[in-house]
Amino acid sequence: MNSPTHSLLALALLSKERHRKRNWAIFIGSIIPDIAIYIWAPYQKFVNGVSGADMWGKLYFEPPMQNLIAYFNSVPIYAVMAIIGYAARAKTWGKLLLMFALAALVHLATDLPVHGHDAYRHFWPLSDWRFHSPFSYYEQDLHGKWVSLLEALIAFVSIFILWKRFPKLWVKIVLSVLAFLYVAMQVVFRLAAINIAS
Ligand SMILES: [Zn+2]
Question: Quick check: is 198 in a domain?
């Protein structure tokens, strides 16, 4: 799914008002699986001068990038972190590690069912198996239209929960911008039938 949906869902499930550190750990955990892509893509574009078509059509599917994605999207790695965090939950770092790992696992749990042609190796290093889902959050031939509608619904429910949980103005501003973007994304997706990068 799109990165903001992962963060909204993880925060809706795990965040608490007035628990700053906990909430930041959840936010970072919710985006960490996508971080490799955010560093890799600008690097290829601005440092190596690779075109968008070459990047997403070719380089993305080659071993260096696929390996990086596997490391950052590994269920076993975050599961081990969650167990260590749980065992040390009496300490602050244990609690934060647990929240970080759980948020990352929420991310993976919502990516696994909706990555079709671009399935990840979610069980690395135990296995290189890829679950090629019959559903995709953006690919038109794999029900992308319906899945993206479901994604928007998850986002809106999460926005609603977070809106009620956090009275701070800046939170409400961020949530409003995101709500607007989800509506805009649906419009664009339906009108132009374009692919939206994760
Ligand atoms: Zn992801």
Answer: no
